[in-house]
Amino acid sequence: MRRLLIIIGIEGYAVLLALYRGLGSVHTDEAKYLLNIPYPHPPLARFVMNMTEALPYQEMFWRIVFASLVTQAVWLIARMAARFTPEDRLTLCGLWIFCASVLLQSGTVMMAVLTALQGLVFVWLLLGDRKLEKYLGWIALFWLASLFTAYQAVLYLPIVVAIFWKAKVHPIKGVLALGIPLLLLALYVASNPLAAASFINAGEQNIGRPLLDLVQTTLISWLWAGSAVLSVAGVIGMVKTKQWPLILSFLLVFVFHITSYRVYYPVLFLPLLIGGVVACPWVLRKSSTLLAMQIVIAVYVFAHTQLAFYETGARTVMRQVNQLPSTGVVLIAGSFGHSWQYESRSPVFRYRPTLLSKAKAVVCLEQCPGVSNYGFYQIENIPQEVWIRKN
Length: 391
Hints:
- By secondary structure, the protein is mainly α.
- The chain has helices spanning about 1-20, 30-35, 45-50, 60-70, 75-80, 85-95, 100-105, 110-125, 135-145, 155-165, 170-190, 195-205, 210-225, 230-240, 245-260, 270-280, 285-305, 315-320, 340-345, and strands spanning about 330-335, 350, 360-365, 375-380, 385-390.
- Helix 8 (about 110-125) runs parallel beside helix 10 and helix 8 (about 110-125) packs parallel to helix 16.
- The radius of gyration is 23 Å and the shape is globular.
- The mean pLDDT is about 90.
């Protein structure tokens, strides 16, 4: 009964985080996955999410699923810390629950969140006491599934290599188990021009920025990921115990942040930081103080995070357009993201005068003069310039 009540309490926490992230609207990157847009990531997770497209609250459903997976992962962390004292085990679980990346990223529908959870499973397999020989086939399949969820799973390759090394698998079998998924991923990228283009765009994102600024941004990302307390404790733990798989993966994530930083990548540090603490319980020698500091920092971070109680323009506009009785496409002039496509019940196309005969509405994010000449009238009291076809 006690465990059941804890599970219910954690789930309530997860729902709260999901509702918080859903206060605004779906963002462009989230819309890509919900709509199964064939870039930038491989198809596995986004295909599964797109199967629920008919659900009336698809976005919130997946926010709750993602938040639940992240928060309920605390049970896996407790399992990893089974040899700890009860106080240290509770502290480690608290460091996870109250870190900034869990507070502010768990309710997002982002592949980085799933990749971090997959990384946590790999860390558990590496640092656990169980014999892995019986599960090597499943581990290889999980490695394949991780790569086809998001490309960033390759950042945990040193840990996966160490898992097969720990299991003392035959070298040829190990190479096949590690290499075949990587080869399949490379073939997928080669056969998908949009995926290849996303690789190039990601690599060119930070060109021209000073290296010192990029390193500083990455350091802040690392500190933010674990709310400083877990961030520092995790690195000390992995270095002190010379956990080279964790250290190498940490360096890969660090370099990846420098070359292709996004605000949703800090969570990728999180499983490595947990692994560092699990490998070196000594860092929790003042556990009550560390947990208190973590909670204080969590409150500070949450209090100083801008609350997005407003809708995006895409949701506001498309709510009006979706109520129109007429049929036809929606044309948008200017630069727009996939969030507009997600919010619309009608096909969305870039504005071209030749398509006006098929349109029921035109959204002008930039100037689109002459629309009124084609039988459209403008809606008033709406943030964007929106034109609707006259009946």
